[in-house]
Amino acid sequence: MGLADIAKLAGLLGPKVLAGGDIAGACAKFAEKKNREHARAFAAVPFAERIVFVPQCMRATGRCRAEEKGAEYICTRCGGCSVAPIARRAMELGYMGLKILKGGSAVARHVEKMKPRAVLGLACQYEGALGIFECERLGVAVQFVPLLRDGCADTDVELEKVFAVLELTAPAPAGKDRKARAKPRG
Ligand code: SF4
User: Fold this and answer.
1) Whose CA is nearest to atom 8 of ligand 1?
2) Where are the beta strands (DSSP E) in the chain?
3) Where does 66-126 show beta strands of DSSP type E?
4) What pTM did the predictor assign?
5) Among 56, 58, 64, which is best to mutate for testing ligand 1, by the most ligand atoms less than 8 A from CB?
6) Residues of the domain holding 146
7) Is residue 64 part of a domain?
8) Which ligand 1 atom minimizes the distance to the CA of 66?
9) I need a labelling partner for 107 at 20 to 30 A (CA). Which of 73, 77, 96, 177 fits?
10) How many domains does the chain have?
């Protein structure tokens, strides 16, 4: 984590937390609060305007078949880690893409380039808090699912949790429902 990131975290969590408190716990609370605040907006965005960001530390060390292209890895869905089923489900639903990020700073770059209206991010608690900060700064609805354990390699995530967020949709407006039901069949 660089100085700029520490300054951002201090702004988000308060300098007292950084001075010796439970930083991961504070980041987790911050993310839970933001998930609640953004859930409705995220669910209202069509799948085609949503993107998924996953961290490179989820890749299977020594087995990953992802192609490295400049600043990113392209998952070839070799099945070595949980990125494959997440990418498959996102594509089935019609998401605009899944990006394996080499670092948290890539969030803003991809959002500015691809212009999603909603982001589902997977990361450790620190990177998650910073990613949420970037999404809010750029006016994008965001949902965050934390990794099961922090680390620089072979990390993982709870797939059921990720799928549940991927599939979040807003209920149809009541008027539309009524019209659909009233429509004669045949
Ligand atoms: S599923 Fe994708 S990211 Fe995971 S190890 Fe295979 S190629 Fe790499």
Assistant:
1) 64
2) 50-55, 67-69, 72-74, 97-101, 118-123, 141-146
3) 67-69, 72-74, 97-101, 118-123
4) 0.87
5) 64
6) 28-170
7) yes
8) 7
9) 77
10) 1
